[in-house]
Fold this protein.
Amino acid sequence: MGKADLHIHTTYSDGSADPGQVLLRARDAGLDTVAIADHNTIEGALAARRLAARWRLPVAVIVAEEVSTADGHVLGLFLERPIRPLLSAAATVDEIHRQGGLAVAVHPFSWWLRLFRCGGVARLVERLQFDAIETVNGAVTEQLANFRTKAYNRRVARLAELGGSDAHTVEAVGQAYTVYPGRGQALLRQAIYHKATRTGRSRGTMAALTGFLKSYLAGRMDLYGPKGGALTAGGGVTGI
Ligand SMILES: [Zn+2]
Ligand SMILES: [Zn+2]
């Protein structure tokens, strides 16, 4: 079985760990694949991919982007080019598909992130051509919303279920993950297509909470702020 963390931020957006730190942690956590999914940029993912090759790490890097669309955050996996923010979610999903990528509705029902204009697409999940839905988001703030997302998906959307840490610190990498038959990016794509993915968690909520607070209080993260993918009141995206 493969084990992939499909939602990781680095210093290229609002994370506190650089791509190298993320990769080493991923290897130690037994992940065979990671998606580096910075807000509104693929530069961190490209840097991670180069490093993984140079260091000959057994960790595949998926080039991804968590796009701030006008309707909420949308994750593009397997991208070739950056996607600009502030398009509608529908246009963003189309652009992801044009590149041969997969579109994921991340934290679709997060009430917490919505407070900071960093929410998900909510029930647009049903209307757009998403390939998968993040039913387990590793952030401490998302645990209740995860239940709702999972129930909604089983009842209504019926998409492939993914787990991602939404890590903004090195300790959080791998705290939530996706398990799939086989290993490697091609088989992961196939598993998503056949809805054969499963989600998992490796870290207790308390450990996640203390790690998160420590990093936040140390001022190492810029969550919900300039680089955090928030839409401003005027409809712009800050920090890009
Ligand atoms: Zn987000
Ligand atoms: Zn995120």
User: Anything to note?
Assistant: The chain has one domain: 2-217. The pocket of zinc ion (ligand 1) is lined by residues 66, 73, 106-107, 113, 118, 229 (CB under 6 Å).
